[in-house]
Amino acid sequence: MKRLIIPVLSGLLILTGCAPLNTYYKPGASVPTLNKDTTACEVQALRDVPPSTLTRLKPPVYIPAGRTCNAAGQCVDVPGYYVPGGYETYDPNDGLRLRVERQCMADKGYAPVSIPACPDAVAKAAPLRATRTLPRLTETSCVIHNADGSFQIVNRG
Asked: What is the C-alpha separation between 122 and 153, in angstroms, rounded?
């Protein structure tokens, strides 16, 4: 079991290194302040728009009978069958809760952004450090994900 977990976790770490950073952004804000404001807005959104988990039945789907033939003209009849349905849970308040969170962050001066991951050459050349204060973003800004969960925003060029 341990042999399977380590490669999977390693793969996830590699994938997050290539992923963009999706966050709220306000140039000049400190990362601890960003984290505090984000948590406060998430809590407010949960308070104002609580989860309402609902369950619905997904009906079975019938796949009708058919015939498949190869290039030589040999055909096989495939009988019809049902794909079982099942249950799914969902929260109809998810969208509204996200809008309340975004409005709260906008009221604090933040905007949602997606910062692309830095190319490998840039990531390897940059000194290892974490961003403490959010810099102005430019068209050449990119992010390096650090192993400890922090990030570094680099303005190339």
From this structure: 11
Cα–Cα dist 148/145, whole Å: 8
pLDDT tens for each residue of 97-129: 999 999 999 999 999 999 999 999 999 999 889
How far, CA to CA in Å, does 24 sit from each of 70, 103, 113?
55, 11, 6
Residue closest to 151 by CA, chosen among 21, 7, 8, 42: 21
Q: Is the pTM above the cut of 0.85?
A: no
Q: What is the CA radius of gyration of the chain?
A: 24
Report the alpha-carbon distance of residue 32 to residue 55 in Å, rounded: 38
| Widest distance between CA atoms in the chain | 71
Helical segments of the chain, H only: 2-18, 31-48, 94-107, 120-125
Cα–Cα distance for residue pair 38/50, rounded to 1 Å: 17
Long-range contacts at 139-147 (CB < 8 A, ≥ 24 apart): 141/115, 142/115, 142/116, 142/117, 142/118, 143/20, 143/21, 143/115, 143/116, 143/117, 143/118, 144/117, 144/118, 145/16, 145/17, 145/19, 145/21, 145/117, 147/13
Q: Tokens in use for 55?
A: 């369950």
